[in-house]
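Why do we bother with holo predictions? Because pocket geometry can differ from the apo form. Keep that in mind while you read this record for magnesium ion.
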Amino acid sequence: MTIILNLRSASSGEAKSCISRAAKMIRSGGIVVFPTETVYGIGANAFDAKACLKIYKIKGRARDNPLIVHVSSMSMANKVGTIPKRYSSIISSVWPAPLTVIVKAKSSIPKIVTGGLNTVAIRMPDNKVALDLIRQSGVPIAAPSANISKKPSSTSAAHAKKYFNGKVDAIIDYGPSRLGIESTVISLSDFSLLRPGSYTMKQIEMAFGRRAKIADENIGVAEKPRSPGTKYRHYSPDKPLFLFTGDINSLQAITRGISGKFTFIGSDESSKIMRGSAGSVIRLGSRKRPAEIAHNLFGALIALDSCKSEFAIIECFSEAGMGLAIMNRIRKACSNKCFSSQKGLEALLKR
Ligand code: TXA
Ligand code: MG
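The structure, written out:
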């Protein structure tokens, strides 16, 4: 049975007792879905190999795709991995933040958590409930995003409930995730970006005084990606989803023969243009506010599964700032199926 712990309107006393109940579950080998500032996580005691194995089973996750270990203090982080001295004070001033660092793993971390690698991913989430849960548990919490493998990440407890009701011990409901896209992952061994995320390249440069180099896997040329997760299918809705890379003003004409058959996912501005031709429209927010697009993206991909349309078209966004992570998630959700002309769309529909 899954207990839903509702903290959305809880008094501070009620919240405290809910978190202490969830912490007890973590300590005794249980699985708890909890909020972070990026997306919801599905967590277990990072020192407990048996509990962490359950996460892989529940998610249907490949065993070589390691988990992120969530900590509530630098001293806890130092028990999980070796943070290079030269970065330690910077990381301590940046955290809590949506920035995950890959460092050498301590031997106390079971191999199941690191997917057999000798490195470990660590982050301190910028969310009060997540931090309280880790503190009260007294152990670091290993947690991937709270979704069935290949499906879009949960940005609300309702999404997590849809995926995991009856499969986890508890789901903590603390309302919608503030940011909506997962953390940025960087390797500290060569200061490279393994996964773009909610912590922007500019923020990295400002904090560390240097630019992270983009790892091959982000431009699709790595034979063996160092971030194992990047080689798997991701964020995929049930329906075919195609990325439109052309000028939005031409999309209406391109889709004339199939109007009504597809769902359009895009900015408020483009949705106005497509309202008449699409069977349904899912609005992501204003193009002028990338944070809003990021916040709504996974919810839109999850909502798409309940639309009656045969397939969906999503539009492109600028890759500046948060846009890098937004377009990374969109491309993966589309499995890189792009078009810019009527012929291109017809070819995709014939596949
Ligand atoms: O915002 C987030 O990061 C969320 C919340 C819950 O914290 N978590 C999350 O976890 O997105 P997950 O498992 O969905 O993504 C973790 C990514 C995967 O791509 C994985 O391959 C990579 O981090 N990763 C973990 N450990 C690694 C390691 N030792 N070396 C390279 N990549 C690693
Ligand atoms: Mg994930």
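The pocket of threonylcarbamoyladenylate (ligand 1) is lined by residues 36, 38-39, 41, 65-68, 98, 100, 102, 114, 117, 119-121, 125, 143-145, 182-183, 185, 194-195, 226-230 (CB under 6 Å).
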